[in-house]
Amino acid sequence: MFFCPTDRDGNKVTSVVATPGPASQNDRPQEVSYTDLKVIGNGSFGVVFQAKLVDTDELVAIKKVLQDKRFKNRELQIMRRLQHCNIVKLKYFFYSGGEKKDEVYLNLVLEYIPETVYKVARHYSKSKQYVPISYIKLYMYQLFRSLAYIHSLGICHRDIKPQNLLLDPQSGVLKLCDFGSAKHLVEGEPNVSYICSRYYRAPELIFGATDYTTKIDVWSAGCVLAELLMGQPIFPGDSGVDQLVEIIKILGTPTREQIVEMNPNYTEFKFPQIVSHPWHKVFKQGTSPEAMDLVARLLEYTPAARISPLQACAHRFFDELRDPNTKLPNGCSLPPLFNFTEQELSMDPALASRLIPDHIRNEQAKSDELDLPSSSSQQPSPSNASSSIPSTSATPAASDTTDAANFKATSSGNANSSTANAVVASSTGMN
């Protein structure tokens, strides 16, 4: 790394030798220069900077994390595999030294996207309003698309929450970010259960399961959907144990069969017998039956009973997005929603007829007839009679044990005999 004096505006320029993000056979390093470096976030993982690329004036986010020389960085390995319109793009990566001897930092240069679902939801909450339902549909649909894609590759994000859902307010595009906890799950290989931010943690994680599946992401997405509909977290537990109490308050006491599916080691666990709370009493009056039905299909105790992300995209809750007359408030088309690849559809090819609307198929057919490049990745321009969406303002990879120090989960997900008593005690006052 070396420093150029200044750019034409007098700002210090940093030049580095970086490797392009997407994995390819021609991973030739190249010089990349950036300026206007400033800190925009930090945590146990490291620091995130905002910068501007000198050649293109494009804003980027640079995530700087301490690299353990003994292992390949799992986040980098995963990010280099991902190419999807609803996943933040890795543009480059490079290494830099630290203040201490032999310290090495990995720097991920990512596309910069200004907003998050968390910020948007907080804006409405402070104004004592709810996020418009059309926006909830647009955001959640794109989240499910991103999950369908990574799950088709065997990758589990393991930290789905509103803070990790980036938004471009102009285009309406949502992109999933922060793959610092992500992992390629392999059947038979154990994983840490102390993962995922507490409010969004699946019950099998609270039970200490280590053989979980990508369905933990589906649970988390269900929590995000419920939160957007309610204006507050649906399961606001104060601890890992209290998190389970909050879940039981709404879903009721899990059956023995459901407990076996979550973690067979807890079949003798004695729960207070709580009856499930009807969904129409959980959500505000006027919440659509379709919305409540989707939440119910996502927030199932039994992981295998939860619908897949692709099935969620096909749910009737999202039918408004498949209407060719729906548009953004600025008059522009919706962002690309139906440009499914074979990889995405591979999890459930039979859903293709439901997922790709007729007007998109017709556009594709016309394009094929004219022998033009496929237009299936674009939405058709909306007609005048349109429904408008409301506006808003060869080294081994690191093991789970190695990564555990960087996990941002806020309380332990492992249940044991002492926590069993705490659940019973905490549950006696539940309504």
From TrEMBL:
Its domain of life reads Eukaryota
Q: Name one Pfam family in it.
A: Pkinase
- Does this entry carry the keyword GTP-binding? no
Q: Name one GO molecular function term.
A: ATP binding
Query: What are the Low complexity biased-composition ranges?
Result: 373-431
Record-annotated residues binding ATP? Answer: 64
Q: Which PANTHER family match?
A: GLYCOGEN SYNTHASE KINASE-3 ALPHA (PTHR24057), PROTEIN KINASE SHAGGY-RELATED (PTHR24057:SF0)
Protein name, UniProt field: Protein kinase domain-containing protein
